[in-house]
């Protein structure tokens, strides 16, 4: 009887795990707009250059732990925004970082594994050269890692991506946002 109860418990957990693999359901549960969009890469030496489409840019921080080129986003041949200034051109950057902290907290509670390197920003003000305005946080289907995991490696993957978020995003790149914002300091 004990073995049957353990098996039923594990089966229920596996069923819940399978239900959590639907990326549309996951995005909705986090209150985020889901995007299946990839930006067109532009050939440009010594940089990761992309053409903006639908006012979307990758939310890829400058320092990712590897020697990489900066990310630049163009529209009609004009540089709109890049990550060299750690997205300081985004007026509501602190709110976006706080939103990401809350989303990662929710993901822990809901059994969702997120890769922070696959979030995007939707520029909400007029897109023009040297963009300075607000943005919305968008999640891509690649950010939701549940569908790529199995039941056995789920916990390790969750730890790995939470560590990337805390170290790379909060620690290495957006520490200034955290230090100047009392709400972020508390969360």
Order of helices and strands: HHEEEEEEHEEHHH
Query: Spatial order of the strands in the main sheet?
Result: 1-8-7-4
Main sheet, how many strands, which sense, barrel? Answer: 4 strands, mixed
Count of beta strands: 8
Structural class: alpha/beta
Kindly estimate the percentage of residues that lie in beta strands according to DSSP.
Answer: 15-25%
Percentage of residues in helical conformation: 25-40%
Q: State Rg.
A: 18 Å
Whole-Å distance between the termini?
44 Å
Number of helices: 6
Choose one word for the global shape: globular
Description:
This protein has six helices and eight strands, in the order H-H-E-E-E-E-E-E-H-E-E-H-H-H. The chain has helices spanning 2-19, 23-29, 93-110, 154-173, 175-180, 182-186; strands spanning 33-35, 40-42, 48-51, 56-58, 71-75, 78-82, 119-123, 135-140. The N and C termini lie far apart (44 Å). Mean pLDDT is 79; it is low at 1-5 and 7-20.
Task: Break the fold down into its secondary structure elements and pairings.
Layout: H1 2-19, H2 23-29, E1 33-35, E2 40-42, E3 48-51, E4 56-58, E5 71-75, E6 78-82, H3 93-110, E7 119-123, E8 135-140, H4 154-173, H5 175-180, H6 182-186
Parallel strand pairs: 1-8, 3-5
Antiparallel strand pairs: 2-3, 4-7, 5-6, 7-8
């Amino acid at each position: 009887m004990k073995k049957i109860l353990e098996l039923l418990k594990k089966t229920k957990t596996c069923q819940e795990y399978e239900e959590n693999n639907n990326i549309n359901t996951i995005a909705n549960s986090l209150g985020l707009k889901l995007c299946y969009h990839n930006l067109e890469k532009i050939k440009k030496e010594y940089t990761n250059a992309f053409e903006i489409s639908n006012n979307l840019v990758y939310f890829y921080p400058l320092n990712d732990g590897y020697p990489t080129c900066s990310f630049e986003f163009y529209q009609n041949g004009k540089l709109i925004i890049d990550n060299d200034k750690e997205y300081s051109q985004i007026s509501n950057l602190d709110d976006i970082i706080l939103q990401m902290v809350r989303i990662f907290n929710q993901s822990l509670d809901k059994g969702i594994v997120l890769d922070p390197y696959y979030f995007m920003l939707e520029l909400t003000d007029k897109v023009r050269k040297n963009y300075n305005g607000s943005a919305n946080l968008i999640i891509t289907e690649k950010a939701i890692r549940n569908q790529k995991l199995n039941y056995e490696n789920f916990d390790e993957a969750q730890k790995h991506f939470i560590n990337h978020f805390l170290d790379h995003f909060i620690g290495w790149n957006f520490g200034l946002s955290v230090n100047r914002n009392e709400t972020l300091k508390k969360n």
